[in-house]
Specification:
CATH architecture of the largest domain: 2-Layer Sandwich
Family: Belongs to the GlnE family.
Helix content: 55-70%
CATH topology of the largest domain: Beta Polymerase, domain 2
Number of domains: 5
Cofactor: Mg(2+)
Distance between the termini: 106 Å
Number of helices: 44
Radius of gyration: 38 Å
Strand content: 5-15%
Catalytic activity: [glutamine synthetase]-O(4)-(5'-adenylyl)-L-tyrosine + phosphate = [glutamine synthetase]-L-tyrosine + ADP; [glutamine synthetase]-L-tyrosine + ATP = [glutamine synthetase]-O(4)-(5'-adenylyl)-L-tyrosine + diphosphate
Keywords: ATP-binding, Ligase, Magnesium, Multifunctional enzyme, Nucleotide-binding, Nucleotidyltransferase, Transferase
CATH superfamily of the largest domain: Beta Polymerase, domain 2
GO molecular function, one term: [glutamate-ammonia-ligase] adenylyltransferase activity
């Protein structure tokens, strides 16, 4: 059937006759010839022209209509391509040639409101049913030609086609509904529903569009899936031939189906399908709202939840339909991550596959078969069911929109998303090209040996046969591959992911047998009693368990996978301890059992944490809901700075006014972000600097929010604190939080306390708040400080936000909680000890407006940079170091990385001494961060390269060990017992070192290099 550009499709005599009949010049004829040769039926346009020309005397208007279209270049293309590619469209032109001038004079796409008015007015203008049905069919075919020809010609996108066809369907339904309700009311009277208060009101009825119709994704030959609902059954019609409301709407629904899909001389409007209604074909055709709600809440299946994703009120009482769908949201979208839906959807797909295979259509069905449309739709719907309860933005009807939203929320990577979207459009276009040929509801590709049909289909696709078949094959393989990977992790089923042999045997063997102990020992388990208890838990389920039958099935699936992962953990004993506690907690959150089964990636992240870090493990044991975050591919993205974190916390708190809830959300934010950093840290995705900077940013933003909430609450009660400045102006007094220590230096670690100083700028007389319940500024700021401390340290369900240390404020614990700025300055200039100026080298404003931050920052800089006597400074710094050492001197049985000679404190005191001693001549040495300060000191020539490298390497290693100790102990810990081989071995694994002895050897070597440098600079000359 293939043609080339030189092959004549019509002889010269016929050509001349047609050119004369339609007054076509050579240019127009050449274009018709070129277009015809590209179509599936190249002779069809000529045959249609000849048919019209032959009836010229009988039907002059038909010739005039076609003539006008062929003379217009745009419509010439639409007519030739439409007629040449589709028997269906050719039949429309033949039956209603006057459509061409009508459509030429009409806008496209049609204005939805105008189209609705035109069709409703036309259909409702007649009381004759046959005439109403005829008018509906004429409107349908007119718009189908306008859409079909344009899509075949490549003038509109797939989405424009499906949206326009869906719009037409809902308008036709509305016209049928209004016509039939009027007609039935004339016979039986208006249906009146009895209300709760005993009064009566006109009964309400709505039609829900389901599937592709609900999603505005209709094909050229789609059934429209419908559900009929009416308000109540209680009531009757008002006419002399009175019937019950239920019977009225069942009759209306039955007649509506006939009016829409009964074939006539004008064809049909749309085929209708009501099998998706509650109880399917055995249920009533129209259902009262309460019965429908009860059905879904009590008996609704997963497939019905999936169907409701696309549901949309399309005709009748739209507001009632919207309210009904709103009431079903808890049924469709569960509050938790609903992985149980995935198994049901997977089974639905298997049933479809078996059915299609039995019909020998699996390889040919572009909708239901291999790599077909349904695989993309099932993936999107499964993820919407799983995550839509937590993320309302995912509750969309359109498939492509759903895929893009899944990408935005991290459940689908960019490449797969774009591939699925492009392939979905391609497959839907193929489906359209199959159906537009004869308006048949088929999704089957031609058989392999039907070359003629393959050639025709490829031409309707605008491609040559070889290219089309290669493209189609590639697309279907891509879709099926991604579907299998996303649904089954690349396996044909989840069960194909085989367990390790040890786990398999341990799940079967006698727990009290020597063989069981042998297997546990071989896996590295030292605590055999705990190992046997863990096996019992996995086999029998959690104690106090009241799991449902379904949840128990999920637990039984999960148990061997947990065991397999635990045996591969870096520390199986630690992993067993945490996994056991975690599984015991899951009886209170059983929906997470399905998540862990269906998301092996989550389990692969979780168990290594259980085998490495009690601190991070506690997050999951206390709050299993944190697992929701592990599903997102964005969760482990790198640290993106304070602005992103601030934006995320602000978004969480939007429209939340309750103080207790806000406190819990701040703690949730902190825990989630610390967990994110911890996982990146353990996984080698973040270095130490990123981890400490991230932990510092989390603390800073949490402090900001606690301050903002406390300030707002007090200001609403008492007004803002005001003062009179030196110019006599009333201005607002300011507040700032000064971070000291590790937070000040952006070096916060896990479980670190926050060293803080609170400052306010209020001074002078008339220092009162400006509210109705005015208090003095001192009272206001004292209350503010107390609220901030409570907000940070209060123990809630989410744990304590941070421990605070306020001892660095002027006069320590005996001083006021909030220091006046003037008093703080005077204290630092006249009373502060040298160690307090050492502390200032790491100070920074973390809460406060920009002007206050600059004011405080400049003052601190000036204090640090003032000239000092080096000998006096050296003696003061060393004396304080010795005092601390004597107070906290570690025993010989431990290594204290912080207090030992040559440890962290030696490095930090040396840095602070060099900054305070030389900042007046080398201001560039002033840095709050220890590593950056060391580099600046080296560049200033105050350390040689060997000294700088020794101190820098030692400090980084000390902070790494400190970091790992806190991950191990879930608390601030700086000591390692020399005889604790287990802790040393765990440290070695976390630091990627050979063994525990290497940890001790490296620590002692670094300390041996640091101490002489400390003594060189800080010990008095002998």
């Amino acid at each position: 059937m293939a043609q080339n550009d030189t092959t004549p499709l019509i002889d010269k005599q016929r050509q001349e006759a047609l050119c004369a009949a339609f007054d076509l010049d050579n240019g127009a004829w050449d274009e018709i010839r070129q277009l015809a040769m590209q179509t599936a039926r190249p002779q069809a346009p000529y045959e249609e022209m000849e048919r019209v020309a032959a009836h010229n005397d009988v039907d002059a208007p038909q010739r005039a209509a076609l003539l006008r279209g062929l003379r217009d270049p745009h419509w010439r293309r639409l007519i030739v391509i439409g007629v040449g590619n589709s028997h269906f469209l050719a039949g429309i032109v033949r039956r209603w040639p006057d459509f061409i001038p009508q459509l030429m004079d009409a806008p496209f796409p049609p204005d939805p409101d105008q189209l609705r008015r035109d069709i409703l007015e036309d259909v409702l203008a007649t009381k004759d049913r046959a005439e109403a049905e005829k008018r509906l069919r004429i409107h349908k075919h007119r718009l189908f030609f306008a859409v079909g020809a344009r899509e075949l010609a490549g003038h509109i996108l797939l989405e424009q086609t499906t949206e326009t066809l869906s719009l037409l369907a809902e308008i036709c339904l509305e016209a049928c509904y209004q016509w039939l309700r009027r007609d039935l009311a004339a016979i039986h009277g208006e249906p009146m529903s009895r209300q709760e208060d005993g009064s009566e009101a006109p009964s309400r009825f709505v039609i829900l569009g389901m599937g592709k119709f609900g999603a505005r994704e209709l094909n050229f030959s789609s059934d429209i899936d419908l559900i009929y609902l009416h308000d109540v059954n209680d009531g009757q019609t008002t006419g002399p031939r009175q019937i019950a409301i239920k019977q009225f709407f069942i009759k209306l629904g039955r007649e509506l189906m006939k009016m829409m899909h009964t074939p006539s001389a004008e064809g049909f409007v749309f085929r209708t399908d009501l099998r998706l209604r509650p109880e399917g074909e055995s249920g009533d055709l129209s259902i009262p709202l309460l019965s429908a709600e009860t059905y879904y809440e009590s008996w609704g299946q997963t497939w019905e939840r999936a169907a409701m994703i696309k549901a949309r009120p399309v005709a009748g009482d739209i507001a009632m339909g919207e309210a009904f769908l709103t009431s079903l949201r808890p049924f469709v979208y569960r509050r938790y991550l609903d992985y149980s839906a995935l198994e049901s959807i997977r089974e639905m797909k298997h049933k479809i596959d078996r059915k299609v295979n039995n019909a020998e259509g699996y390889g040919r069905n572009v909708k239901l078969g291999f790599g077909g449309i349904r695989e993309i739709e099932f993936f999107a719907q499964s993820q919407q069911l799983i995550h839509g309860g937590k993320i309302p933005e995912l509750r969309t009807r359109e498939t492509i929109t759903a895929l893009r939203l899944l990408r935005e929320h991290g459940f689908l990577d960019y490449e797969r998303c774009e591939t699925l979207c492009a392939n979905y459009r391609f497959l839907r276009t193929v489906e359209h090209r199959i159906q537009i040929e004869r308006e048949q509801q088929t999704h089957n590709l031609p058989t392999d040996d039907d070359t003629q049909e393959w050639e025709a289909l490829s031409r309707r696709m605008g491609m040559d046969l070889a290219t089309f078949r290669a493209k189609l094959d590639s697309v279907r393989k891509q879709v099926h591959g991604i579907y299998q990977e996303l649904f089954f992790g690349g396996h044909e089923s989840a069960e194909e992911a085989a367990l390790g042999e040890r786990a398999e045997e341990l799940m079967r063997c006698n727990i009290d047998s020597p063989r069981c102990d042998e297997l546990l020992i071989a896996a590295g388990v030292e605590d055999l009693a705990a190992g046997r208890d863990f096996l019992t838990l996995l086999r029998e389920g959690p104690r106090r368990s009241a799991l449902t039958e379904t949840d128990q099935l999920w637990f039984d699936k999960l148990a061997p996978r947990v065991l397999d992962a635990v045996l591969d953990a870096a520390d199986p004993d630690l992993a067993i301890t945490h996994a056991a506690e975690f599984l015991e907690q899951l009886i209170f959150h059983p929906h997470y059992l399905a998540l862990l089964v269906e998301s092996p990636g989550v389990l692969n992240l979780l168990i290594p944490i259980f085998g490495a870090s009690p601190l991070l493990s506690r997050f999951f044991i206390r709050t299993p809901a944190l697992m929701d975050r592990l599903v997102s591919q964005e969760f482990l993205a790198g640290y993106q700075g304070q602005s992103r974190l601030r934006q995320e916390l602000t978004g969480m708190l939007t429209q939340v006014d309750d103080a207790e809830t806000r406190h819990e959300l701040i703690r949730s934010f902190k825990n989630t972000e610390v967990l994110r950093l911890g996982i990146r840290d353990l996984g080698g995705l973040a270095d130490l600097s990123e981890t400490m900077a991230g932990l510092s940013a989390i603390a800073t933003i949490s402090l900001e929010q606690v301050f903002n909430d406390a300030w707002r609450e007090l200001a609403e009660r008492h007004g803002a604190p005001m003062m009179t400045n030196a110019d006599g102006e009333r201005v607002r007094a300011r507040f700032a939080i000064l971070a000291m220590g590790k937070l000040g230096g952006d070096e916060l670690n896990y479980s670190s306390d926050l060293d803080l100083i609170f400052l306010h700028t209020s001074s002078g007389e008339q220092s009162w708040t400006d509210g109705e319940r005015s208090v003095s500024n001192n009272q206001f700021f004292a209350k503010l400080g107390q609220r901030i401390i409570h907000g940070i340290t209060a123990l809630t369900r989410g744990g304590r936000l941070y421990e605070l240390d306020m001892r660095l404020r002027p006069s320590g614990n005996s001083g006021p909680i909030v220091s006046a700025w003037d008093s703080f300055k005077q204290y630092q200039l006249n009373e502060a000890w040298t160690w307090e100026h050492q502390a200032l080298t790491r100070a920074r404003v973390v809460v406060g407006d920009a002007d206050t931050a600059r004011l405080v920052g400049q003052f601190i800089h000036d204090v640090i940079a003032q000239p000092r006597d080096l000998a006096t400074l050296r003696d003061d710094v060393h004396a304080m170091r010795e005092r601390i050492y004597q107070e906290k001197k570690p025993p010989e049985s431990v290594i204290d990385i912080k207090q030992a000679r040559g440890g962290v404190v030696d490095v930090e005191f040396l840095i602070q001494y060099l900054i305070l001693g030389h900042a007046h001549t080398h201001p560039n040495v002033i840095h709050r961060n220890a590593s950056r300060a060391l580099t600046a000191i080296y560049r200033a020539g105050l350390l040689d390269q060997t000294e700088w490298e020794s101190l820098e390497n030692a400090y980084r290693f000390f902070r790494l060990i400190e970091n790992r100790l806190r991950l191990l102990h879930d608390r601030s810990e700086n000591r390692i017992a020399r005889d604790d081989a287990r802790v040393q071995a765990r440290l070695a694994r976390l630091c990627n070192l050979e063994d525990g002895q290497e940890v001790i050897t490296l620590l002692e070597a670094h300390m041996a290099r640091v101490r002489p440098l400390y003594e060189k600079h800080l010990l008095p000359a002998q």
